[in-house]
């Protein structure tokens, strides 16, 4: 999601991220050298057992390293906020990672989920083209939202009293007004291990707001066959993100809040009967 130009660059975060990628590169190089040294002192049973190639840094990581080392633009989240998601991705990756929003941190998320599936959903078609021209490896889809921020209060009141909104089903079959039904087919058919809600735009009255994105993320998590989904919502300092995440992701599933980021761990509701919120 393209942000207003008034956001202050986080120089320290940029330096830390760049340093992290450099450290990762160093580890890979040392690992490669260590393997080579071991081979010099080891006589294999068969010549074909000897690796002939050194370990190379994955293209996604090298691209991210160059990007963050040379760019004046830093990710939209703070280091402390990113660290919360990083701990989950360290444990779950490679995994299926769905991100509402396409922005300056997208390359970071793809790199942290190296080897997994990372998909971005974005409302601004021109912004998608701009990012794809620079990073063609990112998987992104255009999404059209049919809500506006001025509807938020009415949508919250109506949805909380509508039994259809507490029914666990595929979002395409849901009769809840908040369920997103126009997403790409792949998005509905994949069981997402991690979902990040950092879009659509929600900072002015004419913006679509994140009401449907938050609700649909929770519905996808509950509708998986088994296990749990880690759902993150950014900008919870704002009214919509605050109220809708508490209402539809549930305070009982809230595991942590760091700055403007909330982390919910939502279990499958298909393996056994559960109330919508614990």
Order of helices and strands: HHHEHEHEHHEHEHEE
Major sheet description? 7 strands, mixed
Distance between the termini: 32 Å
**Mean pLDDT, rounded to whole units?**
84
Total number of strands: 7
Structural summary, described in words:
This protein has 278 residues and is of the alpha/beta class. The chain has 9 helices and 7 strands. Helix 5 links the parallel strand 2 and strand 3. About 11% of the residues have low confidence. InterPro entries: IRX15/GXM/AGM. Keywords: Membrane, Transmembrane, Transmembrane helix. It is a single-pass membrane protein. Pfam families: IRX15_IRX15L_GXM.
Summarize the structure.
This protein is of the alpha/beta class and 278 residues long. Helix content is 40%, strand content 14%.
Which key phrases capture this entry?
278 residues, alpha/beta, 7-stranded mixed beta sheet, 2 domains, globular, Rossmann fold, 9 helices
């Amino acid at each position: 999601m393209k942000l207003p130009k008034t956001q202050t660059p986080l120089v320290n975060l940029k330096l830390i991220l760049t340093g992290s990628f450099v450290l990762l590169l160093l580890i890979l190089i040392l690992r490669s050298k260590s393997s080579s040294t071991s081979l010099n002192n080891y006589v294999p049973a068969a010549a074909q057992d000897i690796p002939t190639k050194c370990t190379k840094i994955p293209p996604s990581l090298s691209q991210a390293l160059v990007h963050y080392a040379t760019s004046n633009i830093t990710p939209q989240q703070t280091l402390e906020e990113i660290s919360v998601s990083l701990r989950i991705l360290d444990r779950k990756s490679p995994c299926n990672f769905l991100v509402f929003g396409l922005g300056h941190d997208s390359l970071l998320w793809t790199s942290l989920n190296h080897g997994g599936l990372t998909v971005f959903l974005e409302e601004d078609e021109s912004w998608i083209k701009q990012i794809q021209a620079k990073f063609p490896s990112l998987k992104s889809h255009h999404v059209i939202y049919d809500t506006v921020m001025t509807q938020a209060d009415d949508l919250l009141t109506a949805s909380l009293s509508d039994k259809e909104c507490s029914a666990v089903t595929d979002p395409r079959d849901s009769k809840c007004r908040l369920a997103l039904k126009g997403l790409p087919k792949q998005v509905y058919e994949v069981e997402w291990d991690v979902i990040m809600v950092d879009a659509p735009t929600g900072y002015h009255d004419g913006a679509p707001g994140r009401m449907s994105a938050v609700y649909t993320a929770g519905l996808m998590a509950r509708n998986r066959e088994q296990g749990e989904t880690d759902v993150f919502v950014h900008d919870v300092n704002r009214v919509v993100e605050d109220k809708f995440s508490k209402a539809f992701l549930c305070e009982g599933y809230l595991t942590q809040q760091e700055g403007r980021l909330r982390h919910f761990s939502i279990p499958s509701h298909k393996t056994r009967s559960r109330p919508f919120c614990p």
